[in-house]
Amino acid sequence: MRARFILSETWTSLKRNVPMLLSVMLVTFISFLFIGASVLTQAQITKAKGGWYDQVEVVVWLCPDGTSQSANCASGKSPSASEIDALQQKIRDELPDVVSKITYMSKEDFYKDTFLKQYPNGEYQGRTLTADDMQASLWLKLKNPEKYQVVAEVLSGQDGVEEVSDQRQIFEPVFAVLNRATVITAVLAAVMVLVAIMLTATTIRMSAASRSKETEIMRLVGASNWTIRLPFILEGVVASLVGSVLSCVMLSVIVRTFISGWLAQSVTWIPYVDQMTVLMISPFLVAGAVLLSVVASTISLRRYLKA
């Protein structure tokens, strides 16, 4: 009987406060859409770094034949086979805990396997380049990609080495922009959550005030505080639940349309968040919305719980 009474009172409150409840649903929807977008953005950054950083390598560009700006290439000649072997041995001796694999790429191999894939006709800045215009290089696979600086310190001053570059440097600016976007989204989400809490509390307080005579009668006949309070709390929970579920559905649509359906087809070299990622964060979004609603409703009803 008590459960039936509570559900009946909840349904009555829902019917009486449709406009305000729609407002709570809308604000909850927008708030948790921002929160979900922030989480997905950070998940995308983590996934891209995790999947791509494991594949990136440090490239040791060897001196080319001819003029070079590097002081290590003052001779104007590319290093000989014996000098390259000595350089590789130095890497094995001094960086055994950092470098896991060394791959030598000749000028011809770089031209065929890398340059022509990017510039099929061999044309670059108005010139047609050949293998003789390329540079030989050593490609180092690191055990820990974060230790690039150790490799650079050991090799940058070596004769025959023109430059030591880390492929990660190309994408660090992109990740920095995404990190800033995450912060901005999180701030907006925090503001919207605050608005949702205030609106939920106001709505529940107004609902309780409009039924003050009924709650007073319930108190006189011996109803417990929880029996009086629970219908109003459930009212806020229903609105927040619907709003948060809608935000999860919208996140799924966004990922399906713009990530899986467009971006993943255009840029294929990095992994992306997918529907599984949305499914993983959705329970936390829904639970968070319900919890915030319960807290806001409970606090707003304190003065109606006094005997």
Question: How would you describe this structure to a colleague?
Answer:
With 307 residues, this protein is α+β, with helices and mostly antiparallel strands. It folds into two domains: 1-52 and 172-305, no CATH class; 57-167. The chain has nine helices and six strands; from the N terminus they run ααβαβαβββαβαααα. The chain has helices at residues 2-16, 18-53, 81-94, 107-118, 148-155, 168-210, 212-220, 225-266, 275-300; strands at residues 58-62, 99-105, 123-124, 127-128, 137-142, 161-166. A four-stranded antiparallel β-sheet has the order 2-5-1-6. Strand 3 (123-124) and strand 4 (127-128) form a beta hairpin. Helix 1 packs across helix 8 (225-266). The mean pLDDT is 82.
Question: What's the short story on this structure?
Answer:
The chain is of the alpha+beta class and 307 residues long.
